[in-house]
Structures are given as C-alpha cells and as structure tokens.
Amino acid sequence: MPVTINQLIQSKQQGRQIVVLTAYDFAIAELLDRAGVDIILVGDSLAMVALGYETTLPVTLDEMIHHAKAVRRGVKEALVVVDLPFLSYQESPQQAMHSAGRVLKETGAQAVKLEGGNPAIAQTVSQLTLAGIPVMGHVGLTPQSVHQLGYRKQGKTAEASERILGEAIALQDAGAFAIVLEHIPADLAAQISQKLAIPTIGIGAGPDCDGQVLVINDLLGLSVRLPPFAKAYTNLRETITEAVQNYAMEVREGKFPE
Ligand code: KIV
User: Fold this and answer.
1) Are 71 and 40 in contact (CB under 8 A)?
2) To the nearest 10°, the Cα dihedral for 171, 227, 206, 169?
3) pLDDT at residue number 223
4) Whose CA is nearest to atom 4 of ligand 1?
5) What kind and span of H or E run contains 173?
6) Neighbours of 158 (CB within 10 A)
7) Does residue 15 come out as left (phi exceeding 0), alpha (psi in the -120 to 50 range) or beta?
8) Which helix H or strand E contains 167, and what residues bound it?
C-alpha cells in the first residue's frame, strides 16, 4: 500500500520511526522502495552527489524534475518528495506555486520540500498547502544558504535555538506535513519534536526525532567525504573499484568474454 501523509502523522503518534533516504535515479529508487523506505527524497543534494557541483545552488528546476521523473518511475509504495531548488521559490509565493505545480504535474511526486522558516517562507508554505500541495519544511542547517551559514551546526546559542524552534512552529502552523531538522543540537531537536504534532525528520540532529534521513551516497559508501553525522553501511567505492578492475583485467587478458 502506498505511504500516505496521514500514515506518517500516525507513525509519529504511535512512536514508529519514519525512514527517509534520498534517491536520484530509477535503479536506486526501485531498490529503496523494495526495501521498504517510507519517504524517498529527490534532494537537491543531487547537485553535489550526482552532478558534481560544490554546493546545491546550481541545480535547476528542470534538472530536479528530470531526476524526479526517473525516481518516480521506480517507486510503487514510498512517498516521493522533491526539493524545490535554490531560487525556484524564494522570489514569491507565485513563483513557488508555479515550481511546485510543475513538480507535481510533471513527475508524479506527492510533495515538495523547501528550506527555511522565516515569515515569507511560512507564507509561501501556507499558499502551497491551501492549493493542495503537500510541503515538507527544512530548518537548522539549510544548504541553500551555505554562503551565509557555511556547513556549521546551527542552533548553538539560546537565541539561535529559540529562532529555529519558532521557525518549526511557523511551518507547522502554515500547513507543512513534516519538517527536516538538519545539523542542530540533539536536545533542541528533541524539544522541537516534542512540541510539534507533525513528524520531524533528523539528519545530524540526534536520536529523538520522529524519523531519520540520510543521503543515499553516504549510506552506500559512495561519497569521498562523509559528513560528521552520516554513517556508511557499506563501502561501494571499494566494491565497484574492485569489480571494474577485475573486468578490466579479464578483458586485457582475453578471459572475458569466454
Ligand atoms: O538535499 C538533500 O538531500 C536534503 C537532505 C539532506 C535532507 O535536503
């Protein structure tokens, strides 16, 4: 049965952890879906891990849609959420509506994610949800603001943690169905998770969120550098290198094809 937003809210109420992973193509999406992941996020981390950019900023809405279509074709059960990329929603609620509308219409994904929780973003979330577009929020370290924030942990002072808590509440009030909490202190994430009725999905935010998300390349050991809060569950860099070296050797030695 396909995962629904209502089920995710129930998961929080029943204390069932929500499992989220990113995917950027058909093959990986199909595997994650078969493995029973609840939410597959076509993150704008696509820019860095699949397209080789230094930051998430360069990826375009057209590129996000192109990859999201491939992901969606591989998924039967999981809820597919697509990141709205940098400057595809910040200009105005109208711009956000146009971008989110394209994502839902052209990819078949069920929801969009956008970063930040200031009053302008909350207003945008409110307009999108009023139009029937499910929105996932994202506060704490927001990579689209890398040139302001760097990749440092956020919410370390009382003032900053108060602000992040306020943003999370504003996003919930605006109609967001879940919120990613990225790279913030575990006690702040626990406090936000307790205050909100909607699920929080943590990444570098400790164990007391309502679910966890990882970038799939990090989990698979494909990333050259792992963020401090990520965990590799296998080492595909090694596995792939070895397989390719074996293939090259057999071709050069005339052993393949037999
Ligand atoms: O773009 C992304 O992959 C994300 C996750 C890290 C939450 O936003």
Assistant:
1) yes
2) -10
3) 96
4) 43
5) helix 158-174
6) 8
7) left
8) helix 158-174
Nearest-angstrom CA–CA distance, 159 and 146: 20
Ligand 1 binding pocket mutation candidate from 45, 80, 146 (most atoms within 8 A of CB) = 45
The 8-class DSSP code of residue 76 comes to: S
Which of 47, 49, 50 has its CA nearest to residue 84? Answer: 47
In angstroms, the Cα distances linking 143 to 22, 95, 218, 242 are 15, 20, 16, 33
* Spatial separation of the C-alpha atoms in residues 159 and 214, rounded to whole Å: 28
Tokens of 46: 């696509």
Separation of CA 244 and ligand 1 centre (Å): 30
Ligand 1, atom nearest to 113 Cα:
8
218 C-beta closer than 6 A to ligand 1: no
Q: Is 176 in the pocket of ligand 1 (CB under 6 A)?
A: no
pLDDT for 87:
98
How far apart are the C-alpha atoms of 65 and 84, rounded to whole Å?
9
Binned average pLDDT, 10 residues per bin, the chain of 258 residues: 97 98 98 98 98 98 98 98 98 98 98 98 98 98 97 97 98 98 98 98 98 98 94 98 98 97
Ligand 1 atom closest to 115 (CA): 8
Specify whether the CB–CB gap between 174 and 126 falls below 8 A. yes
